[in-house]
Amino acid sequence: MTAALLALAREQGAGPRAEAPPCDVAAVAEELVERYRALFRAKPVALRLEVRARPQLAADRAVLSMVLGNLLRNALGFTQEGEVALRIEPDALEVHDTGPGIARAIGRHGGDLFRPYVRGRDSDGAGLGLSLVQRLCARQGWRIWLADRPGGGTIARLLFGGP
Hints:
Blueprint: H1 2-12, E1 22-24, H2 25-39, E2 45-51, E3 56-58, H3 61-78, E4 82-88, E5 92-97, H4 102-106, H5 129-140, E6 143-148, E7 154-159
Parallel strand pairs: 2-4
Antiparallel strand pairs: 1-3, 4-5, 5-7, 6-7
Helix pairs in contact: 1-5, 2-3, 3-5
């Protein structure tokens, strides 16, 4: 979270951004999956990576790592058993989990999880992670959304660029 705040602060006062060197989305995903696989090894949750494409983004690798790391951490944190799958597409990535889903996690009056201090019922976080993720994505020209997964769980979709 500190790194995300620092990245936003650096960009706040900066002039035009210099073009970042190409960032291999799949390589960042592979590193994070290995890290989280080790951290959550005692939990009965399978973590899968499906690389269907290897997009190269003109984006800061640290920002992509923060965004994707938050999505994986949330999926693994809220999934008690089952699976978390990270899928890399040519223009997007998706994190699917078999956790409780968005509607059940926040309840009828839960609000928008991308707003600061809004968090799921079972969350022990401060409610800032997804708010920071959304701001980082907006600065990169990415779009992000969450939805209930048919059959249970959540889908987080990050679309690189586009309208």
